Amino acid sequence: MDDYIQSFDSPESVNATAFEVKNCLRAGGFRLTKFLSNHQQALLCITPEDLEEPKSETRMTTQNLLETENQLHVFVDASIVATCAVVYLRSLKKTCNEVQTAFVIGKCKRARVKQLSVPKLELEASVTGVRLLNFVRHELSVEISNVFYWTDSQVVLDWIGSSKKQPVFVANRIAEIKVKSKPDNWNHHATNLNPADRGTLALESKEIETKWFKPPDFLSTNDVLCRPTKQMPICAATTRAALRTKTPVLDPKQFSTWTKILPTIALVFNPIYRAKKQRDNHHQYTVEDIELSKSYLIQMSQVNSFPTVIELQKGSRKLDPKFKHGSLNPMLDKNGILRVCGRLIFAPSELELAKRPKLLHAKDHICRLYLEHAHRICVHQGTEATKAFLQQRYYVIGLRRTLQSIRYKCFLCRRFELQSIKIFMAPLPDCRFPTENKQFTFANCGLDFFGPFYIEEEKDKLQKHYDLIFTCLVKRAVHLETCPDLNTDFFLNAYRRFTSRRCQPADLYSDNGKTFVGAEEEFKRCLNDLGKDKIHKALAAQNTKWHFNPPYGSHFGGAWERLIQSVKRTLLIILGSRKFTFDVFHTIIVEAEAMMNSRPLTNVSDAIENEEPLTPNHFLLQRPYNSLPPGIFPSTKPANMKSWKHVQQFLNHIWRRLVREYLPTLIKRPKWTENDGSILKVNDVVWILKDFTHVVFGLWEE
After folding, report:
1. What pLDDT digit, counting tens, does each position of 455-501 carry?
2. What are residue 280's DSSP bridge partners?
3. How confident is the model at residue 131 (pLDDT cuts 50, 70, 90)?
4. How far apart are CA 515 and CA 450, in angstroms?
5. ∠ CA 14-17-20 to the nearest 5 degrees?
6. Total count of domains within the chain
7. Which of 597, 624, 656 finishes a domain?
8. Could you tell me if residue 96 is inside a domain?
9. For residue 102, what are the β-bridge partners?
10. CA 124/CA 78 separation, integer angstroms
11. Structural domain that includes position 35
12. Are 104 and 87 a contacting pair, CB within 8 Å?
């Protein structure tokens, strides 16, 4: 600073300017003592006290500091708004035992945008204080005999004094504190006497000189500074005081479940929480801690939902007649919890909790967390079951609608209750229709395994066997083969038996079973291993195309799945619960095949003059039943070409009947007759319902 000179038009303007400059600098802690003017009426606002020099003994000069024992005291504090650290100098004269204190430097930082817990903010303030003190020691040219760090956070003191492994955020900052300071230099100080606490609040300019620049009073005493106790006992009275505070301990909206917020509240009420005994036991909270935390959360929810009612009850005043829920007659109990005083006061003692339930509102976030917790406790049974569980202890306003909303948004409930999409049944594929170039039976063939069946190999020893069904997709004929296992080798042998007795199919259709996929690869490998052009040309005309259904598309195989159901019903009637040998079982399978091939494909008429119903045996044996001969041929009548013409005419006749009588029966859709409007698009998230024979009912796969 330097002297300042200015000219004015009148004495009044001089007085006004001098008054403003004096008050402005005084607000910043500066005092002007030199005023001079060439006019007598000027500077009338300057009093003799303004011209007096400060007493020399109150100044802390460099010469005085060199003759004293100097100490630096750092105070740190934090809030959810800002963190603060302030440094004071304390000098003790060795000659006269006089103490002088002075403000050195202070620093405030706004808290992070991503809100941290209060202990972590206190830790960041401690790091700021350590860095600030090292800066002051580097800039001062006097010798500092000792330093002291003061904080009102017992948690930070415990972190600094502990040698146990901490989370990364805490460990990094504790490491810096221990490098730049000694743990023994850290002390506890009361919050109301901590000057750094003023830096975390909004202060007016007139309060800065008295609440910020002025050091604490205890620094001016001559007594030796004693470090307070590291551990401060947390009693029940302290916890009850926290319950009565209007400022919440933490923001409930930061928690998503009741099981997370409840133990956190218990930890906040007891910050030490048996630090040296129970931290290794993963926070084994007692029943008293959980109940106390639950009471606090209920009170917080009631304060958020019914602030006016609670204030009126505390003042022993009547409720507003316009109060919407006045019929509940809410009253505060001795613990400060709002309860419903209805018509069940004289109910038996067994209904003590239901007589005066706690009053909650479902719109509050804390109440919703508890309702979601109750929904999970009731094992997602539904709205009424959860409501019955809650009404034993609580009266929740808007309960039913909120429970319905929770049930609708619950992932597990939606998985169990969703129905599969209803799609309009597609037209039949071309493989189900007869064509001129594929008139032989089993030209278009579908196959699948079914079973298992238990066959008695030895005495009291059963072995699994499976059956393989081949069905003509056009004429609905059936061929059954028995396989000891579901592997490719047994399937290939069964397929060779089928082609040897029936024919070589032109197209094969099956699902995506590993057995069939392996068989296709085996066919390709065998054809490649032969390697001769002549054999390749010979097999080209008889090559079978294999078509696989889409994964999990069991309805694509409905043509053979329906026949499997009929075969199983036939075998159940024949076998019952008895066990047979393989020879007897194979005989029964062949008989079941004959029964399936003799079933009528067209309507059975009661009129004698009508033709017999069409069956698959008409295409296999030229007669409806395998037990009847095709006709009577006398031995005296020689065979000629006309007999074969009759056979060909018969085959043409049943072929025309197949087209005229059987195909029209397939026009009607037996199910899936309407579309529910669901349109699936690419990248839509769906649940796939697997086969119920392999998974638990209702288990969906995402």
Report:
1. 887 777 888 888 889 999 888 899 999 888 877 788 888 888 888 88
2. none
3. very high
4. 13
5. 145
6. 4
7. 597
8. yes
9. 89
10. 8
11. 11-51
12. yes
